[in-house]
Amino acid sequence: MLTVSTVNVNGLRAAAKKGYLEWLAATGADVVCLQEVRAEPGQLADEVRDPEGWHSAHAHSAVKGRSGVAVLTREQPTAVRVGFGVEEFAHSGRYVEVELTGLVVGSLYLPSGEVGTERQDEKDRFMAAFLPYLVELREKAAADGREVLVCGDWNIAHRQADLKSWKANQKSAGFLPYEREWLGSVFESGYADVVRALHPDVEGPYSWWSYRGKAFDNDSGWRIDYQVATEGLAARAETAVVERAATYAERWSDHAPVTVEYRD
Fold first, then answer.
1. How many domains does the chain have?
2. What is the UniProt remark on how the cofactor binds and its stoichiometry (predicted)?
3. 55 included as an active-site residue
């Protein structure tokens, strides 16, 4: 099996102090994608930046304390690419990808946005540029005999089943009609939502819960962390789970790892 996990760590230095390292030591994953690292590699302890038994590829943001993505792999990548060829986002810490045997894996942290602000405009520009890149990536990978897997925090709930309070969030960033339509376009361009394909008729499974109030205890969450795969790889997915902490106190991020097993 090929096992892949993705998780927004909500600050890797903080997560490392609260349980991330223990989770990483116990995981059976072959690939781990991280988002919202919020640190330059030099600010991370050695065991966090380059954990034993892993090859790590980092892309930090030029703005200190913001964004940041990484991919950890058991297999040494044959290539690493930061960004997706658009100058505005070249140093934003929002995308890094690696090439493995028969597979390209990207870690994505799509802007969260905020209605009526420049943050939403930035998100819109990112989406407009990223979809053509995904199409091109799929085509190039297919020509090389590779599948593509883009994991990460996409910051969009695609369907009503992807967030608990969908009625109250119809005008909120992350559930705007045009954002949902855009994500649908991704899934119509030769990619599949792996977790939803394996869990077609359930609410969630949610992967993010606000730290405010009783969102976690009430399972009032959002499913915004996706594994998005080309169709050949998606067809090989056998299990998909959200590694939700047993209790609020045991959380080391406001997100939970999303882990999928694929047949080799």
1. 1
2. Probably binds two magnesium or manganese ions per subunit.
3. no
